[in-house]
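Supplementary Text 2. Reproducibility record for the structural model of the 423-residue chain.

All settings were left at their defaults, and a single model was retained for analysis rather than an ensemble. We include the record here because the model underlies the residue-level annotations in Supplementary Table 4.
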Amino acid sequence: MTSARPSLRPHRDDVLIAVAGLLGGVALWALGLYTQGGRPFHDSRLTLIPLAVMCGAELLRRSRPVTALGIALVAVVADQFTWGTLATILMFTDLMYAGVLYGTATAARWIPRASAGLTVASTIVVLAVFQDRAAILIGVAVGLITLAPATTGVAVRSHRQAADAARLRAQQTALLAELDRREAVGAERARMARELHDMVANHLSAIAIHATAAQSIDDRTASREALSVIRENSVQGLAEMRRLIGLLRAASDAGGADAAPAAAPTLAGLAALVEQARVNGAASGLGFALDDARDPGAPLPAPVELAAYRIVQESLTNALKHAAPGEVRVALAGPEPLTVAVTSPLGEGRQQDGRPGAGPVPRAPGSGAGLIGMEERVALLGGSFTAGPEDGGAGPGAGKRWVVRAGLPTGEDTTAPQRRNHG
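Retained model, structure tokens:
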């Protein structure tokens, strides 16, 4: 694909320069103000011909700068054989400047070099011919009308290129900043989605399970107990939702930096979490046990502790939805790395993706994002995560358990999120 050629239509400023030069030259000619006399052509009206040609070249100073400079060079040489006018010389200097400023990169390099060579050569030749030190003034004059405007054009062109480069860098910086902002917004949205899912899904799953039980069991006492559990989970879920909304409002508020941060759940609350799951799963034949073998004196980074809590919470929620009757065991060990394992009975009719199948427990609908959210949390901390059916070995129930296992590093580098390595 070829680039479009610049239009030959003259720029408005070029037209104004040409008109001003023509009027100025005619005025100087009418007043009899010439730059020289006694030339081969004694008719002063011939001075207007180079003037008119120079004005025509001015119309091409932007669209065809090198062509305009060539025409101007012929005109200024022709002007030396007439009485001459200052307007022609001034317009020639402007075309030297425009040739460097608007011309190609090649023209911008050779025009100043040629001007310098012409200035030096004219000085040496005139000095050698006339043997007069005053010939140096001729070299100065040639330099003023050729080298001076050419070097000025180089300086202005360099300044414009530097300004263009600075604008380009600013645009690239703004683009990178926008990309970083979008990435940060996306990461924050994903974090909020995980928090919302982990906080509310547990309570809503218990509500759905006990609501189904209350509908299917024709027992007033059992229905009353189910409604009591539903109310308790509704209140807790609403409190969790209000906490998240408060956190989001504090983050978006201009004075949110001074607000007290919302308390994040810690592993100290696992016992209460398991106890709540025991209450919610009792009607489904599920038992829950906590085996915490961690070093009680070993501190854990806040991101690791939050991730471990959410993994256990989501695993218990999935067990309430899918596990067959039996014991669900939560095991923790550490401190480096902190390992979390949640084992639940796996029903006979499990799904093709390995999820526990439906037993006699009333099922609650799932979003399918639980395992993805857990894996993402572990990946952000640079840990390892597996989830799937495992063989239980010899004995009753062998080969019928679902295990979620996560290994979370607890070093100092876990305080900042890490990118997942897809290699």
